[in-house]
Design a protein that fits this description.
Blueprint lengths: L1 H53 L3 E5 L6 E3 L6 E2 L4 E6 L3 E2 L4 E3 L4 E12 L6 E7 L2 E8 L5 E12 L4 E6 L5 E3 L6 E9 L1
Antiparallel strand pairs: 1-4, 1-13, 2-12, 3-11, 5-6, 6-11, 7-10, 7-13, 8-9, 8-11
Length: 191
């Protein structure tokens, strides 16, 4: 009788052990799923953080680093190099070339303001260009006093698209320490 009770006890313990082993295997499987899900979420979080950092793009610059003077007129369209950088978050604007290079695909908004000396035959005109194609123009002319021209546009840019402002042929712009002739751009949102 004792042997039978012992066998039943061993069988019961064996059954409990097998059930415990199944539970451990199920928990291992669940733990692996949780680890995999955590790794995916961590990767997604890193990507979101990177996008947030990439999304910080904004610049403003005025034409002259210091002093006062006119630029132009030239016979052909000429890229203006806005030398006095007011802000350049993301470093996408290059004052040595006057070119903004989109660091990410997105919608950007650009504005251009130009001041010119009044003149009978020479106007003040600048054009916003994307990848060497004219997008918008700001133009004004009057015989005396100063003239102002401005324009702006929102553009869908691909990564590495280039945007610049060109002086209209046979026109001129003026700038001084008051920063009257400016070029600015801002990333509105990623695409």
């Amino acid at each position: 009788m004792m042997e039978l009770a012992l066998e039943e006890s061993v069988a019961s313990l064996k059954s409990k052990l097998e059930a415990s082993q199944r539970t451990v295997e199920e928990q291992r499987s669940q733990l692996k799923e949780l680890k995999d899900r955590h790794a995916e979420q961590a990767a997604a979080l890193r990507e979101l953080r990177k996008e947030r950092e990439d999304g910080k793009v904004s610049f403003s610059a005025s034409l002259l680093e210091s002093g006062a003077g006119s630029t132009g007129p030239f016979e052909e369209k000429t890229t203006l190099k806005y030398q006095h950088v007011i802000t350049n978050i993301g470093g996408a604007y290059d004052p040595d070339t006057g070119v903004f290079t989109a660091p990410v695909r997105g919608v950007y908004h650009f504005t251009l303001f130009a001041l010119g000396p009044g003149h009978d035959s020479t106007g003040t005109g600048v054009c916003l260009h994307r990848n060497e194609q004219q997008v918008v123009t700001a133009w004004s002319r009057q015989p005396q006093e100063r003239v102002f021209a401005s324009n702006g546009a929102s553009l869908l840019l691909e990564k590495d698209d280039e945007v610049c402002v060109k002086l209209w042929p046979n026109s001129w712009v003026y700038d001084n320490d008051n920063r009257l002739t400016t070029f600015s751009g801002h990333l509105l949102f990623l695409m």
